[in-house]
Amino acid sequence: MGVAFAKRMEFMKASEIREILKITENPEIISFAGGLPAPELFPVKEMKHVTELVLEENGRQALQYSTTEGFVPLRRQIAERMNRKNETSVTYEDIRIISGSQQGLDFTGKLFIDEGDVVLCESPTYLAAISAFRAYRPVFKEVPTDDDGMVMADLKKILATTNRVKFIYVIPDFQNPSGRTWSLARRRQLIELMNEYEIPVIEDNPYGELRFEGEMLPSLKSMDQKGLVIYISTFSKIFCPGLRIGWIAADSRFLDKYVLIKQGADLHTSILSQRQIAKFIEIYDLDAFVANIINVYRRRRDVMVETMQAEFPGTVKFTYSQGGLFTWAVLPERIKAVELLLNCLRNYNVAFVPGDSFFPNGGVTNTLRLNYSNMPEEKIVEGIKRLARAINEY
Ligand code: PMP
């Protein structure tokens, strides 16, 4: 007897880097480590008005229990936006509201993964997806990536030689951490393989709308004829994350299961938050609001990339991201990103996330993720200059 935790807890460790990065709360430090939206862009005044309206018009319903599936008017608004922006043809019945897309990732793990099952993902991939899935104890198979997305020859080989693959998890638009976007050809090829093997694809798309230049590419969901793509998205990056509103768009055979899981997890997502967003979309122009975010982030991306071009040694390669929140740098192999971070914190008051933990099976030690959405332009310039000095000194 005594306190005995479940085995899965052995796989849920606090990250050392997260502990180290706690000191970046110190305002002296210029931190590119987070992944936060710019809070100065949050529509605080508008949300005050919206909240008043929601409480005046539907106060009791907004504070009562609600349905697991989510608030129908919001699901209709989401379907309308997806069809306009992501080239899908969905209705509200294809949408379920979740508490942030992170909840969708956890539920996906719960839905599909038995111990020892295989999850295919990009290498590198989103850290908190790794954590969410890891609790269910899968084997991660990392599929190599290049500037156009997953390398299809590698994916093919892995699919042909691996049993128990439960799903393929991808972030095709402005990926976290790499900032890269899949080409149209790669999207088509993935859909072909998905159809051939009849394996679900999880399309995680929090950043797709934050495109700074070029044409938006069709979502995987829009190319899916067999109902195998499970599309997960969120208002966190195009609106504000604190409301914790995300959604899943998928075939009903999946949605029904997600609803069962959600009933056991939290019954439903905050109906006050859902009504607040729905009212905001009803009375304000969300597209114009997103356009403003894009303008601010584009300038920050420009400033970061231009300063990197000017200051970093030529041996450092980095992504010119066309949208989203991140750029990604690859250092010469002998440079250990974790050591560089420690030196940066000790001597330069600048921070970033070493890329190591974005590789579920480890082994890559010379990459960094840099966030530009949460820092004013002049600090980006200063921070990148400091980082360049630390790299040159290494
Ligand atoms: N997926 C990806 C790729 C992300 O980068 C994030 C946020 N950093 C999430 C999911 C989770 O976002 P949220 O739960 O706020 O919707």
Automatic annotation (TrEMBL):
Biological process according to GO: alpha-amino acid metabolic process
Requisite cofactors: pyridoxal 5'-phosphate
Recorded superkingdom: Bacteria
Pfam families (alphabetical): Aminotran_1_2 (PF00155)
Annotated keywords: Aminotransferase, Pyridoxal phosphate, Transferase
EC number in record: 2.6.1.39
Enzyme class: transferase
Cleavable signal peptide: none
Domain Aminotransferase class I/classII large positions: 49-387
GO terms for MF: 2-aminoadipate transaminase activity; pyridoxal phosphate binding
Subunit details: Homodimer.
Family designation: Belongs to the class-I pyridoxal-phosphate-dependent aminotransferase family.
Protein name: 2-aminoadipate transaminase
